């Protein structure tokens, strides 16, 4: 009984796929006839599709610009909070500014770096050395 049901289902699926192929062929033939009889209609459809795609891409660009603006504001806020010695610190330098070496738990600068780590990892990464080069107090941040 189970085999008969499975065979019946397979046959129904095959019939459905055949009818779907026939339907697709019908519409493709009609599309071909339309393109031969009215080529301007095909051009109008193509132009319409291109306009829709352009509009979709413009919305995507606007979305990315708004995100960029948001992260630039976050970066500007972080730069305003960070002391000048940290802001002027250059990655790759072997010398740490004294204000980085003297972080105390609960300090405003340490809090700012923690916020920068959560909101914009590239900012903190560009300001500090790698884990091997940083003082032990900063190991948890990197």
Summarize this, please?
The chain is mainly alpha-helical.
Keywords:
mainly alpha; elongated
Compile the SSE list and pairings.
Blueprint: H1 2-37, H2 39-81, H3 84-87, H4 98-101, H5 108-119, H6 121-127
Helix pairs in contact: 1-2, 2-5, 5-6
GO cellular component, one term: mediator complex
Family: Belongs to the Mediator complex subunit 28 family.
Keywords: Activator, Coiled coil, Nucleus, Transcription, Transcription regulation
Describe this structure in words.
The N and C termini lie far apart (65 Å). 75% of the residues lie in helices and 0% in strands. The longest helix has 43 residues, at 39-81. The model is unreliable at 128-134 (pLDDT under 50). The protein is mainly alpha-helical. It has a domain at 44-142. α1 (2-37) packs across α2 (39-81), α2 (39-81) runs antiparallel to α5 and α5 (108-119) crosses α6. Keywords: Activator, Coiled coil, Nucleus, Transcription, Transcription regulation. Its main location: nucleus.
Query: What is the tally of helical segments?
Result: 6
Could you tell me how far the N terminus lies from the C terminus, measured between alpha carbons in angstroms? 65 Å
Q: Quick one: overall form?
A: elongated
Average pLDDT, all residues: 77
Low-pLDDT segments: 128-134
Strand content: under 5%
Tell me roughly what share of residues is in helical segments: over 70%
Largest sheet: none
Q: How are helices and strands ordered from N to C? A: HHHHHH
By helix and strand content, what is the structural category? mainly alpha
Number of beta-strand segments: 0
In angstroms, what is the radius of gyration?
Answer: 31 Å
């Amino acid at each position: 009984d189970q085999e008969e049901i499975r065979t019946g289902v397979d046959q129904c699926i095959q019939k459905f796929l055949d009818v779907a192929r026939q339907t697709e062929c019908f519409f493709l033939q009609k599309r071909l006839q339309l393109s031969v009889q009215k080529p301007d209609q095909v051009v109008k459809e193509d132009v319409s599709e291109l306009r829709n795609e352009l509009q979709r891409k413009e919305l995507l660009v606007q979305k990315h610009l708004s995100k960029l603006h948001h992260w630039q504001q976050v970066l500007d806020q972080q730069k305003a909070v960070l002391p000048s010695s940290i802001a002027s610190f250059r990655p790759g330098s072997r010398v740490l500014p004294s204000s980085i070496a003297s972080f105390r738990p609960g300090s405003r600068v340490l809090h700012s770096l923690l916020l920068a780590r959560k909101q914009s990892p590239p900012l903190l990464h560009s300001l500090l050395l790698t884990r091997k080069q940083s003082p032990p107090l900063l190991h948890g941040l990197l």
